[in-house]
Specification:
By secondary structure, the chain is α+β, with helices and mostly antiparallel strands. It is about 40% helix and about 10% strand. It has a five-stranded antiparallel sheet, with helices on one face. A hairpin with a 3-residue loop joins β4 and β5.
Length: about 325
């Protein structure tokens, strides 16, 4: 997230880090990164370097599930990542660390959930598609190894894809409430004005999504997926080795949940994926199409939900409105 949460003070966060993970005297520097979580670069009194992540359990993309359910989902996702690192021996999986009681995720009040990982110095890229075929092939190889490790993880550990759109109910309510003012903040009325002429198209997209999701849901061959294998979620260390971060969306799902973000129209990386997977499988074009639309329509639902609530003008909300505008452009 681009903006530090105003209702989580650093002293309280530092106290939690000391009590649960033994990170004493933490000096926290906020990092305005990404859209899913809050991050701090943290150094403790012993000079140890940590990467602290805080997930907002009331964020718009988590609405529709109780906060306790959101924490449970995070624990399953990060627990799966830890198993991939420890049991499947996938050295590229940068998973959070357990505390003294073997708990990976801890609550910070009612609203927030905290994880801690070692700080990895290196370089990463801004969010966006993979640019070169070399990059695609490299990431496809890692995905092949990841998906091949599915059997090394207890089948009861990862959550399972259900193709739900987390803020869908709020979006559908918004589509039926376009005739009155949305006085919720600086982007309330602009969102209503943006959505109103496109309401019929959004309803059509939702119906088409449901049809496609029902088709893909019945197909076998699901694997453990990262969910967001884009360029910003890969850090290269000083030796050039790739480390994949942000495992909070890990699920058992069709392999295309990851592959749509890596393969290009000419399927660059597919050969490398199959080689690393160690199996001959078919690429499901329906699932590829489904996940492309899931990302776009999820952003619409989540950002409409956010702007239907009281909000202010920040770097974060401004960026979200820009993305919403892009995802509602006529196709």
């Amino acid at each position: 997230m681009l903006t530090e949460p105003p209702d989580l003070d650093r002293a309280s966060l530092a106290a939690l880090l000391e009590a649960r993970w033994g990170v004493t005297g933490a000096r926290l520097e906020y990092l305005p990164l990404g859209f899913g979580s809050h991050h701090w670069d943290t150094v403790d009194a012993l000079g140890r370097h940590w990467f602290v992540t805080v997930d907002d359990l009331e964020a718009s993309w988590r609405l529709g599930r109780h906060a306790d359910g959101n924490v449970a989902a995070l624990r399953r996702a990060f627990g799966t990542a830890a198993a991939l690192r420890d049991d499947a021996r996938l050295e590229f999986v940068l998973a959070p660390l357990a505390d003294a009681e073997e708990r990976i995720v801890n609550r910070a009040g009612r609203r927030y959930a905290v994880t801690v990982a070692p700080f990895l110095g290196g370089r990463s890229e801004k969010w966006g598609p993979w640019v070169t075929e070399e990059e695609r092939r490299g990431m496809a190889t890692l995905l092949g190894r990841l998906h091949a490790a599915t059997g090394a993880v207890s089948p009861d550990l990862p959550g399972r894809e259900d193709f739900s759109l987390q803020s869908r109910a709020i979006l559908e309510a918004a589509l039926s409430d376009l005739d009155r003012t949305w006085d919720t903040g600086p982007f309330g009325e602009p969102t209503r004005a943006l959505l109103a002429p496109r309401a019929a198209d959004v309803r059509r997209r939702l119906a088409a999504y449901d049809t496609l999701a029902a088709r893909v849901l019945r197909r076998p061959g699901w694997v453990i997926t990262h969910g967001e294998p884009h360029r910003a979620n890969v850090i290269r260390d000083g030796a050039g080795a790739a480390h994949v971060v942000d495992w909070d969306t890990t699920l058992l799902a069709p392999r295309e949940r990851d592959l749509w973000m890596v393969l290009d129209d000419r399927r660059a990386g597919w050969h490398e994926y199959l080689s690393a997977l160690g199996a001959d499988v078919e690429l499901d074009t329906d699932a590829l199409e489904l996940y492309r639309e899931w990302w776009a329509i999820s952003d619409v639902a989540n950002f409409v939900a956010g702007f239907r609530r009281p909000h202010g003008r920040t770097d974060q909300t401004s960026a979200e409105f820009d993305i919403l505008t892009e995802n509602l452009r006529p196709t």
